[in-house]
Amino acid sequence: MNSFLCTFSLLWLSSLATAANFISVFEWPNQWDYEWPSEESRNRFLLTGAYKPEHFQARYMAVYGTRIFISLDQFYAGIPISLVALPTYSASIAPPKLTPFPSRNMHGKGDCDKIEEATGLEVDSADRLWVLDNGSEDCYAKLWIIHLSKNDQTEIIHVFPFKKSTHDLVLDETPNDTLAYIAWWGGKNIVVFSLKRKKSWIMDIKEIDVISIALSPKEEPRQLYLGKWKSTELYSISVAALRNNQTRAANPTLIGNWTAINPYRMLMDNHGTIYAAFFETNYTSFFHTSRPFKEQRLYQANIRYTGLPFTLALDPSGILWMVVYDDKGEPKYRILKAAVGAESYIFKPSPPVTPAIATTPITTTTKSARVKSTKRFKSTPTTEKSLKVIVGETATAAVQDQECECSIMSEKLDQYWLFIIILIASIVVYVILSSLTFLWFILRQKRNNPPKANEEQQLSVFRNNQQEVQDENSRGAACTNSVSADYDDVGPVEELYEEVIYHRPACTPPPPDLYEQPITVSERRDRQRK
């Protein structure tokens, strides 16, 4: 029973974590702006038309330490610098300006040795920022690798044998190599780059014009998920077919259909959840790849449909970052974040600590996954945490399993304590509202319920008896006023009792002659003689 409860709690917490609660980090009411060396430089770019801040749109983003990296879409002219950086926190009330990255001198349209049009961004576990560069009409597309923990030094520049149309990339870190899988926008292909071999090759993807790409967590066999251009369809292919340079074609498998077309941005966490943003759509979605395809809403904004309304990124601390763009509203740009309890697919899921069973007490030492994920952002080395688990000789297998499962649940409860508090508050509000609703229903029923039949009958009998008494009194009074004193007054009552057998003559007054003519003495004597 305890095992069942622990398992149920873990499933509940997993579903609860998907309900992301976004909070605002920065808001720009009107426009983004670069950090310029001087106001004269800014005015010069504005006058020549090389700088048009109203055309800024975030295309991709990545987060490392205290910095947010954003690539700016160059569909419209007037974007002289396409890769910028922002802080994750600012003490100033005013929102920060965009800082050219790695420096202003590293950007230049038409210069093949500089960043011309940055697109896809990704940070690997070795603190390196991978940047796709579309190039230009005169220059081939490139791949930049910049070491962030080494003063933003550029380590590798790989030049592809084609121009334009690079879109997004994901990284496959194997024990012997790091491979980049690149969505070649506008073609039914995937470009593969090997860091170890410093070489790239092209894979044909049948019948799929790839626009977005996502890679499953670090569990073999890994799958590569592909979003299709001008379609709602989502496909997947095995990564094993991409890792060697021998196979040049792959057969994708249909996974499901999104509710919107053109998922231009897809992002995978290390728990197997895909987050997606779509062209000209005011919401983002997600679904769990470990279950049958079922799209769910992640975030919906009250904005008009614009070209690239959202872009997403995950950091190593389980925070999901999002840029929201509203071309017609205010604020025009926002950066939001939410704790989702999952890191990027680059990192392995945090393994649960499993105590050992032995006949003698033992001590097991393990490294905390949280320390490991944040260690690369600190200048000083982090000491490993030791977890000592001592199991006595009398421990049994059943008890051990329960302790293991409940320890996992305890870790999850600590991680999602905020969601638990929200749930408890929701339950309390629900109980109060339910009680008030039930009370209102009872009162309404009593108000609308008619009186019982026997009560009405009793009231009717009372009214009839009262009426009969009033009629009898009125008739008796009338009879009394119309007869003499020595005449019986039963007559008026007979109308009330018509069914009585014995009837008396009607109560009528005697003839007036009896009272008008007096009787003489002679007449009285004659009567006595007779």
CATH topology (level 3) name of the largest domain = Neuraminidase
Number of strands: 25
Identify the CATH homologous superfamily of the largest domain: TolB, C-terminal domain
Strand content: 25-35%
Can you describe what's shown?
The chain has 530 residues and is an alpha+beta fold. The protein has 2 domains: 19-339, TolB, C-terminal domain (Neuraminidase); 453-529, no CATH class. It has 9 helices and 25 strands. It has helices at 2-16, 39-48, 240-243, 369-374, 397-415, 417-448, 453-482, 513-516, 521-529, and strands at 23-28, 58-64, 67-72, 83-87, 99-100, 118-123, 128-133, 142-147, 153-159, 166-173, 178-184, 189-194, 199-205, 210-215, 223-228, 233-238, 249-250, 253-257, 265-268, 273-277, 283-288, 296-300, 310-314, 319-325, 333-339. It has a 5-stranded mixed beta sheet. The chain is elongated, with a radius of gyration of 46 Å. The model is unreliable at 1-18, 352-413 and 478-500 (pLDDT under 50).
